[in-house]
Design goal:
- Strands 7-6-5-4-3-2-1-8-9-10 form a ten-stranded mixed β-sheet.
- By secondary structure, the chain is an alpha/beta fold.
- β5, α7 and β6 form a beta-alpha-beta unit.
- The chain is 43% helix and 13% strand.
- The protein is built from 15 helices and ten strands.
Length: 373
């Protein structure tokens, strides 16, 4: 069971690629304890009924560390609730916590708390200071890297997952930025592209060069037995080796995953979260026993997306490994709907799959598919 709690819509940064950048002024909602307790209680109820072996709570925003005290209350409430239902849960049941953060609000006390509760930290950093500060700025327009820098060693020690966004302004030198992140001691790094509709052929040519460098770096690391995870390359290689669909490997759009807005509205993906009435792909509200979320029902459009292939992708050899075809949140933020394919994303995926498949074949010839799984 996975729940993502959008505990605040507020953020202390104004990143150029944020998908809420047009609505920052209107985003002021914060989650109440009533919403949190109703959500966690519903999730535990489902864990008991379905005999699930793990329950994962991710704190999301906005910037969730604006509400550290609320996070602490949630952790205590969840642990106490699990304790009261322990006899009804499987013996190997685990409760896990995670937080998606920009890292600018860390303090020694906050880091100690995250470490004590064994949080998985998803840390947004776009590379060394000069690269990071291109897009990730504070409300007053200043770069945010200096606030993160003192805590990079602690985050690396906690095995935080680094999430890097690649814009047209970041693409040249991307491989060096990724290598720099690994050089700080991080073991898990992923990049994602800001598909803003303005990528030129020259930008894509530059991206090809950088992806070639990244694939070679990853390949050489694996040849040496390194346990690093570079999601940009490794996820595509894994889906190639295992013959599985991207949406089955990385997507959490299913009845056992709740993305919850500050007001209790529920969605099948964090990218859809909204406190607005009539928001697209809403599944219900945690206070409404009649809503689909209590019945395990996804909206019709979401079910269609999960169950059917898009006709315009018929005949494409990589369609089941392609974000344009397989990732609902990518489709939503690039086209405004689950039903369309972004040409920009399509181009990107053809580039990335071609490069990754070349290096997958090299590894398979040497070691077999187990080499990277």
């Amino acid at each position: 069971m996975n729940i993502q709690l959008s505990i605040t819509e507020q953020c202390n940064l104004r990143c150029s690629y944020c998908y809420y950048k047009e609505s920052h002024a209107k985003r002021s909602a914060v989650m109440s304890e009533d919403v949190m307790e109703a959500t966690v209680s519903l999730a535990v109820q489902k864990c008991v009924e379905q005999k699930q072996t793990d329950f994962n709570i991710t704190f999301f925003g906005g910037e969730p560390l604006l509400r550290v005290d609320f996070i602490k209350k949630t952790v205590k409430f969840a642990k106490d609730l699990i304790k009261s239902h322990r006899a009804e849960l499987p013996q190997d049941f685990t409760l896990n916590f995670a937080v998606n953060t920009n890292g600018t609000l860390f303090t020694d006390e906050v880091v100690r708390f995250l470490k004590r509760e064994k949080f998985t930290v998803y840390l947004s950093v776009d590379g060394p200071e000069k690269k990071h500060n291109i897009s990730r700025k504070t409300v007053d327009g200043k770069g945010s890297f200096k606030a993160i820098k003192p805590f990079i060693p602690a985050m690396a020690d906690m095995n935080a997952v680094v999430l890097m966004v690649v814009t047209r302004m970041h693409v040249r030198g991307l491989a060096n930025s990724v290598k720099w992140m690994f050089g700080q001691g991080f073991k898990r790094v992923s990049t994602c592209v800001d598909f803003d509709g303005s990528w030129s052929s020259e930008d894509f040519d530059a991206l090809v060069v950088e992806y070639e460098k990244l694939a070679r770096f990853w390949y050489n690391a694996k040849r040496k037995g390194s346990d690093i995870y570079l999601g940009t390359i490794q996820d595509k290689v894994t889906t190639c080796f295992m013959g599985i669909r991207q949406k089955h490997y990385t997507c959490y759009m299913n009845p056992d995953s709740l993305a919850v807005a500050a007001n209790g509205n529920t969605f099948p993906c964090t990218r859809f979260i909204s406190s607005q009435n009539g928001a697209p792909y809403i599944t219900g509200n945690v206070f409404d026993m009649r809503s689909g979320i209590y019945k395990g029902v996804l909206p019709r459009d979401v079910r269609r997306f999960m169950e059917k292939d898009r006709k315009e992708c018929d005949g494409c050899a990589i369609r089941q490994r392609c974000l344009a075809h397989e990732c609902g949140c990518t489709s939503f933020y690039t086209t405004g709907t689950l039903d369309k394919v972004s040409p920009e994303v399509c181009t990107h995926e053809r580039i990335l799959c071609a490069i990754c498949d070349e290096y997958a074949a090299k590894l398979q010839r040497i070691y077999g598919p187990e080499s990277v799984l």
